[in-house]
Amino acid sequence: RVPNTDDLYMVFSMESDSQDVITARSLDGGRTWENYKLIGHGIIGTPCIWIDPTLPDTVVYLWIHPQINNLLQYRKFAISTNSYSSIYTLPMPQGYQINLSSPGISMCFLQYLPVEMTSIKFIGTVLKAKNPSNLPCLLAIQYNITDPNNPSIVHYQEIGNGDANNPSISYSNVSSRLKFHCVYEKDNKIYYRERTHGATNW
């Protein structure tokens, strides 16, 4: 939901030959929905969405590339102009692949930062992956997308092993300290980890 409005957005995948990634919007709190719009193609069941209270005009969608297991794709939607950006691609860290046999992904998008970093834009994501040893893991990645055509990986780290499920990531920005927060499920317990921007480890 766009904060303090009845404007609702959802993103989902529709099984077809092209594995469509779909978005839909309701302006009346979910009683009626506009026709869905095709925004990309991805792995079934994996698209995620981010709407931030500090960015009331921006909706960001992220999904797993349908054929290539070391690429993510995203695009932004501007509410005020009812327009979509181009589709942009995010690489996985060297040697890592998305775990297509058990996919799961979450993301957050950050545009307004502490004073010393005002021009930098980030995407934070956590997803189920396979590491260079081909072992399943939960991988957290922070991307610099200030230039969306040339994204860079700021930080990445395995934060859970192959038994971790249902990852979710968010962030806080208090007293000029940007901090990412992640929760996931493992062995019927909920785990929480956090990392301050610039820190070496979660």
In short:
The protein has strands spanning 8-14, 20-26, 37-41, 48-51, 58-64, 71-78, 83-84, 88-91, 97-98, 105-110, 122-130, 136-144, 152-161, 165-174, 177-186, 189-196. By secondary structure, the protein is mainly β.
Describe this structure in words.
By secondary structure, the chain is mainly β. It contains no helices and 16 strands. It has strands spanning 8-14, 20-26, 37-41, 48-51, 58-64, 71-78, 83-84, 88-91, 97-98, 105-110, 122-130, 136-144, 152-161, 165-174, 177-186, 189-196. The strands form 4 sheets. Strands 4, 5, 6, 7 and 8 form a 5-stranded antiparallel sheet that branches. Strands 9, 10, 11, 12 and 13 form a 5-stranded antiparallel sheet that branches. A 3-stranded antiparallel sheet has the order 1-2-3, with no helix packed on it. A hairpin with a 5-residue loop joins strand 11 and strand 12. The protein starts with 7 loop residues before the first strand and ends in a 6-residue tail after the last strand. 33% of the residues are buried. The model has no long low-confidence stretch (mean pLDDT 91).
